[in-house]
Design brief:
By secondary structure, the chain is α+β, with helices and mostly antiparallel strands. The protein has 12 helices and 9 strands. The strands form 3 sheets. The protein has a 5-stranded mixed β-sheet with strand order 1-7-3-4-5, covered by helices on one side. Helix 6 packs antiparallel against helix 7, helix 6 runs parallel beside helix 12 and helix 7 packs antiparallel against helix 8. It is elongated.
Amino acid sequence: MRAETEREETAYGFSWCLTDGQHYVRAPDGDVRAVNGQTVELLRLFATEELTREALCRQRDGGEAVLDESSAVDPETVIDLFDRYREDGFLREGEPVVRLHPPAEVRLWPRLLATLLAVAALVAVAVARAPAFRALAADPPSLWLVAALFPATLPFVAVHELGHYATASRHFDSSIRIDTVNGVVPAVVTDTTGAWLLPRNRRVWINVAGPLAESLTALPVAAAVAVGAGGTAALLVLAAVLSDVVFALNPFFHGDGYWIASDLLGVENVRSRGLDAVRRRELTWPAVYVVVSYAVGAAFVLQVVVVTVLVEGVRGVVYAAPVVLLAALAWADVDLRTA
């Protein structure tokens, strides 16, 4: 992302960007905050010392007015903004004012088509080999085989995250790390907070790149299954990878599918707005989305855990655990893009 220094010698500096009509400010640690144009102008005034905290305090206490009378904000609000932005690292003493220029948009449809074709190929093989999967369900493999094969699915998850990282790191500092879901379940996550500074279709591409990379990597496994090679091991790995991709693209999980749908539809903060509406007991479409989302997740866990355990007993716990973990990975995937 190209950076242009607007002012070099300033009392306070900050970095800002205008993308798809929305202003953002960015801190050195990569944190991003959506703001309006008036906030950027106020920060510019602080940078040049045309506006100071001391002068605002005097106006608040009845002294000379330093804010335009037509301004929609009062001195106390601007003082609070100054203090918060300094504390959070968005406004920094002695640094320049920098404008970040977002890159041009990308051609999205070929990337979406490639993803659709790759996922469709995996699904087609699974459907064609349905009798083999049914036979596997009727005569489940040993616990040792399931336990041994589960680590074999983790490289596909890593490739998934590398897909996000490779596309994101071209434009901002991204990172991949081991984290946990709800503080318990281990997960590989990619921090893509900086994607907010990019055009909407580039944000979609970053989220699509993960499932695309994972699906392409799984094509040799699908080919082996299609010709009847690889036996039970190939069937289990294909089932696990296909489940991970489908869950990742499911918009009712807070992962790739959620962000892809949000950016394609041009809506933001659907989940947080829905949770707020549910707490206030207001009937809004984001609230309906949140209720359905949690219902889908709960139904999945109940189906996999309760039904499997009831049918298979103790052995069902081992069969259920990898699927639940993959679902959790998909749910957590790229959920760190916040603003």
